[in-house]
């Protein structure tokens, strides 16, 4: 499902948003972004009725880099690298040791561990393997037999997720839980398995539109204090957000455009060094029609649950570098709220284990100064309100903002 932003504008689907061909690390991407260049991207998963879809958005205007990068401190791989992620969000490089981030995905990626090894070796991250106990892959029932089918799109999603966790938290352990299919029931069974395995940080880079029946699912699968459930807000812009991100018990991960900026910038990010963020135009945002408002949300124009809570890199125009042997094998550039979801789940792990009686999705609201307040960008048309327009303070597209270190993701 190919997507070119300017074509969608001409069809009236989204407002025109300046996008760019990603500059290599070290270039002034902010200036290029404002020049209005256009990128093409596509969903790596094909949605089908009654199933969840993954939310990775692959750049299609940059060919895969198939040769092995030289062993250097700055390999010539397009997209943002682990050092970029750590710099942009001021993350500790050695935190998270012994904590496990669970990735819930669908179908089997038989090359998950070997692709992860290439990624981590290229960027000089410590090995994360089955042999050293850092990486573990199980099925939705907790066994070692993989699901019977492999889907190239979902295999790509899996690679993105485990590599994004590695970029944000190189010392974290990774538990990959593969559901048999992408039916909601199987995916939720895999979520339960991740929780049963003891993970306090569960990343869900997928979703489907909300409906009233999901209220009952919340009580069965997500009403568990002390666990940081993080889900992708969606790639549909205003009112295009997804469940389970809409759940009152889940941290809804919105998306931003992450630019390099070597000159002063205005507004709340004026003191930020080297980076600038704005709301990604396709990040899911808005007011739920069915989910009750959690007590920590106090925004005035939505009596129900508002999406999102926090945000991070998601725009494929300024996307994340990843390696996969599926969907045009090699190094590619990717975005979507899949990326922000895995990054934020890893940042929760960096921050420390949640309190056993806590709702971790409430933490950002109690520590707003620990986030970069994003006040530029829009996800659609909503009369100029904060539900689709980034502004100073809380807003739907970016929530309370993007992490400024990890203090905002702990008690």
Tell me what the CATH architecture is.
3-Layer(aba) Sandwich
Number of domains: 1
**Shape field:** globular
Q: For the terminal residues, how far apart are their CA atoms? A: 41 Å
Give me the oligomer status. Answer: single chain
User: What is the SS-derived class?
Assistant: alpha/beta
| Uncertain spans | 1-36
Strand content: 15-25%
Number of strands: 19
What are the secondary-structure elements, in order, as H or E? EHHEEEHEHEHEHEEHEEEEEEEEHHEE
CATH topology category name: Rossmann fold
Q: State the CATH class.
A: Alpha Beta
Number of separate helices = 9
Largest beta-sheet characterization: 8 strands, mixed
Helix content: 10-25%
Mean pLDDT: 90
Radius of gyration: 19 Å
CATH superfamily: Peptidase S8/S53 domain
Pfam family, one: Peptidase_S8
Protein name: S8 family serine peptidase
Keywords: Signal
Domain Peptidase S53: 79-411
Descriptive overview:
The protein is α/β, with parallel strands linked by helices. The chain has a single domain (2-409), classed as Peptidase S8/S53 domain (Rossmann fold, 3-Layer(aba) Sandwich), CATH 3.40.50.200. Helix content is 21%, strand content 22%. It contains 9 helices and 19 strands. The strands form 5 sheets. Strands 5, 6, 7, 8, 10, 11, 12 and 15 form an 8-stranded mixed β-sheet that branches. It has a 5-stranded antiparallel β-sheet with strand order 1-2-4-17-16. The chain has a two-stranded antiparallel ribbon with strand order 3-9. The radius of gyration is 19 Å and the shape is globular. Residues 63-83 are annotated as: Disordered. Residues 79-411 form the Peptidase S53 domain.
């Amino acid at each position: 499902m190919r997507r070119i932003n300017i074509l969608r504008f001409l069809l009236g689907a989204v407002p025109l948003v300046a996008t760019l061909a990603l500059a290599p690390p070290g270039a002034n991407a902010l200036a290029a972004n404002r020049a209005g260049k256009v990128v093409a991207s596509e969903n790596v998963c094909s949605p089908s009725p009654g199933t969840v879809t993954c939310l990775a958005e692959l750049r299609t205007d940059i060919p895969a880099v198939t040769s092995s990068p030289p062993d250097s401190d700055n390999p010539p791989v397009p997209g943002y690298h682990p050092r970029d992620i750590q710099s942009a969000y001021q993350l500790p490089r050695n935190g998270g040791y012994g904590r496990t981030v669970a990735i819930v995905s669908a179908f089997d990626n038989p090359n998950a561990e070997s692709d992860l090894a290439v990624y981590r070796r290229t960027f000089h991250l410590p090995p994360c393997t089955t042999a050293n106990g850092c990486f573990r892959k199980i099925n939705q029932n907790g066994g070692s037999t993989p699901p019977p089918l492999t889907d190239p799109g979902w295999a790509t999603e899996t690679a993105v997720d485990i590599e994004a966790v590695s970029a944000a938290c190189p010392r974290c352990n990774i538990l990959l839980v593969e559901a048999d299919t992408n039916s909601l029931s199987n995916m939720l069974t895999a979520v339960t398995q991740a929780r049963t395995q003891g993970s306090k940080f569960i990343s869900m880079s997928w979703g489907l539109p909300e409906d009233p029946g999901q209220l009952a699912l919340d009580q069965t699968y997500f009403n568990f204090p002390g666990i940081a459930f993080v889900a992708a807000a969606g790639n549909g812009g205003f009112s295009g957000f997804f469940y389970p991100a809409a759940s009152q018990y889940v941290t809804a991960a919105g998306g931003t455009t992450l630019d390099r900026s070597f000159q002063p910038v205005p507004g709340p990010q004026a003191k930020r060094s080297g980076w600038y963020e704005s709301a990604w135009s396709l990040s899911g945002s808005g007011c739920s029609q069915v989910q009750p408002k959690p007590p920590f949300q106090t925004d005035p124009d939505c009596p129900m649950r508002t999406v999102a809570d926090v945000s991070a890199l998601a725009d494929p125009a300024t996307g994340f570098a990843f390696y996969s042997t599926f969907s045009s094998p090699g190094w590619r550039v990717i975005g979507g709220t899949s990326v922000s979801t895995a990054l934020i789940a890893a940042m929760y792990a960096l921050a420390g284990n949640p309190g056993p009686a806590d709702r971790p999705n409430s933490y950002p609201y109690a520590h707003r100064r620990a986030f970069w307040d994003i006040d530029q960008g829009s996800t659609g048309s909503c009369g100029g309100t904060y539900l689709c327009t980034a502004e100073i303070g809380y807003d739907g597209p970016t929530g309370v903002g993007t992490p400024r270190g990890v203090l905002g993701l702990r008690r």
